[in-house]
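Anyone have tokens for histidine kinase? Sequence:
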Amino acid sequence: MNSGKRRRGAAVMVVATGLLAGLSVWGTVSEDGTRERLVLDIAVAVVSCAASPVLLWRPVGGALGLGVLAALSPAATPAATAGALQVAQRRPFPVAVAVAAAGVAAHAAQGLWRLNAGISLGWWLVLIVIAYAALVGWGALAQARRALIASLHERARRAEAEQGRRVAEARMLERTRMAREMHDVLAHRLSLLATYAGALEYRPDAPPERLAHAAGVVRTGVHQALEELREVIGVLRDEERDFGDRPQPVLADVPRLVEESRDAGAAVTLRDDVADPGALPPAAGRAAYRVVQEGLTNARKHAAGLPVQVTLEGRPGTELRIDLRNELPPDGAPPLAPGSGTGLVGLTERVRLAGGRLDHEAARGEFRLRARIPWPA
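Reply: yep, here.
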């Protein structure tokens, strides 16, 4: 409770207890008009009204002190009962019961020497116990309600934060997936363009039809690469675009991929011993296609013009085995295009997600890329 609210609450409490204390004094005057008791009641009423704001800062101590005043005069009863209510609303239940018991004892003492002749002490105690029990119950209920509301607010805040975190994670995973997909496509596309551009540069004496064909391939490849690059930028900018309609390559598309590399001048040999490529699950088929694509791309970039051998083996109920090897260029030969080194890292993760394993090594004058992907029956 901030200071402004406390000041307003203190003012309200002084006014309320002052009115109720005044009514109590008026009642005692009409019942017993002795001057001594009237002076005592007025003094107790003034002190209890002045002390009632203490309940907002020190509810337990204030309630006990007002209980002592209530033992002297009924003028302190409104402030004492307000103190019991404050304790019940803001302190643990056992503390509230103890303060209420002290208040009952104080009013029992008041009844012993100030009780009206029209009511017995027993009924007086019953009424006091009922009143304090109601105050404790009311305060405990209000405290439980506040705790419940605070708990619901906290749960809502946590749920909102958790939902935001899940949305952010899902968005990041989708962006990563699409960026990896586009990396594979762009790396392959740009390596082909570099191959054709190299042919145009180093073979200007080629027949005109060969030059025209190479230029057409470069032009088409540039358009395709630009379109794919726009999609990558769209993913990174969180644009609401649908990438689910793009056809995803599978194992059956590997021969077309190899033929595309041959058209670019690469000496690629394909040995396909796969029993039924269409029976391979789509996720495993995409992973297999990307393995071959990355291997051909790396061969073009780092071992341009050297032979590449691709072997595919497998059937349902066993596993798909991919073996891609190419000769290494002489030491010091620069690559056709620079590489980031992340292609094989992403490819290893892709194969692992398909349940398989990817290995690569450079030894005995050749680079070898091997993958094993489970193929359920």
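DSSP finds eleven helices and five strands in the chain.
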